[in-house]
Amino acid sequence: MSEKNFKVPGVDIGNNVATYVTRVTINTNSETVLDSIAASASVRLVDYSLTLYQGRGVVGQRILTTFDLSAANGSSQTYGSVSVNREEYIGTPAITWTTRTSNFGNTSIRSVAFGNNLWVAAGGGYSAAQLRTSTDAITWVTRESNYGNYGIRSVAFGNNLWVIGGYFGDIRTSTDAITWVTRTSNFNYTHVESLAFANSLWVAGGGGGMEQSGQIRTSTDAITWTTRTSNFDNGGTCFIFSVAYGNSLWVAGGYAGQLRTSTDAITWVTRTSNFGAYQSIRSVAYGNSLWVAGGYAGQLRTSTDAITWTTRTSNFGNHIRSVAYNIVWVAAGDGGDIRTSTDAITWTTRASNFGNTRISSVAYGNNLWVAGGYYGQLRTSSSVASAAAIPATVSAYVAQSWTTQTSNFGNTRIRSVAYGNSLWVTGGYAGQLRTSTDAITWTTRTSNFGNTIIYSVAYGNSLWVAGGTSGQLRTSTDAITWVTRTSNFGNTIIYSVAYGNNLWVAGGTYGQLRTSTDAITWTTRTSNFDITHIYSVVFANSLWVAGGFSGQLRTSTDAITWTTQTSNFGATHIISIAYGNSLWVAGGYAGQLRTAVESDNTFKLAATVTSAGVEAINVATAIVQRTVVTA
Fold first, then answer.
1. How many CA atoms lie within 13 A of 24 on its CB side?
2. Are the C-beta atoms of residues 208 and 236 closer than 8 Å to each other?
3. Dist. CA 232–CA 270, nearest whole Å
4. If one looks up domain 103-382 in CATH, what number appears?
5. Are the CB atoms for 284 and 331 separated by under 8 Å?
6. Sign (positive/negative) of CA torsion 272, 276, 278, 281?
7. pLDDT digits (tens, 9 = 90+) for 157-213
8. pTM higher than 0.90, yes or no?
């Protein structure tokens, strides 16, 4: 391994002086990066391994490996460690779909589900029930379901148990999806169309002939099922096609647009779905604080409370058979139609590769979307990027400079740290928020964000402001009591909040930007980001600077009129911008880092900052020098 002294200006480096860095940030998928740390930091790495870079990264994955650091002069004293992290990478899920061999032959797939690191697909019509399992949704293994000659209509996983239901009320359970046990569902001769588990309860919905409309059963163990009154009507032909749970509420939808809600799955209240008498609801789902219902003739409705439903344009035409959410909304149905949406209002058509074949079910699990339909057709869409496309960060921390503190966040991710008025404030996932006067002892505070993410915390003009998921925004004078404010961001994410020149500025997804003098009343501004995301907003040296998706960068003197600047980031995202010592610094994905100076009121970016002597990889370093004299 090569070693290279990193000389600190004005300091004579001798045998009694170990010069090292407190932080080095580098992007790489190569082992060469470890040599580059030793070369630039005057330290050497001992017994290292890069097995963590083998394979593929996934959404939200963080990989951590620690290496020892010792003095460049060969001293056995350990100064710190190197932590290697692969940061969060959000791909573009449900856009590109790949054909897989399901082994169903010409038998229809009616339902797909994921649980306990396993995919299960089930189907069949008035013919032998088919069931397959897979660990990767690529290779599928045929299983014996004990279902006989009639099809499976629904499969679900919950409480370490697989449950399947279908024609003539048959229900089976399994702990491994291989060995299945017959249960008594009390559905008699009606069909089980939908199964769901939530809040320690199984709920099964269905219906059919013999004057048994809108059948609902509940169970705590999927063995003993209790009949409930669903209040679904229309004689013996009314099916409950979908049952779902979210935000402490059960919702059931079915024939002729009928929809019911319940807090306990026992007492069901009739709601007006706006679907019409001949427009059945085929699927109901909850995600991102929103209910979505889809059905016949491409009808689609949304609701925040499952009581008042708003009609949306789905662009389907054909029937919608399945709706699901994870990062994006996905709706699928007849004619091989698949649409995606970030807000369930504007829907984009995707190429499903199903042709004109009906898609009966879509589900998400383990960073993968899976869609199944008629004639055994099955497709997958990954939200995983290739290893080369995933940002990797190598950071060298020196023990004397960095001390581990207990944040009280547990395993929850911290997204923002800010200081103001002699107080530290941190915010992150699940609405977690902590305060500290010394950054050592942290006190848990109630942020009123619920389970949503706090992406940004800032202080200015004697006020704390926090912004996050679904346009959530809170203010506080003491960081203890937080007041909910209307940000006008709707359901879009607030990624960054900043204060400067007597003005608050908030930026987020789709180029959304708002300003406020008091953080209470927010005014919409045109950011010129088009529909690309704003990840960072900062004010310094009488200038506002905003950066974000695909290297987009804008500047403004008043946060109202924004001027497009050339960032030299190309298509790489800008994640963070800071100002100090008469220099602007911007950092982003793939270790990209740029510096800029202001000249004649023009924001000009310099070339990429790279460490010398490292070949074939793009390296960006941000070095804080420190000298320690060893005895």
1. 30
2. yes
3. 8
4. 2.130.10.10
5. no
6. negative
7. 999 999 999 888 889 999 999 999 999 888 877 889 999 999 999 999 998 755 567
8. no
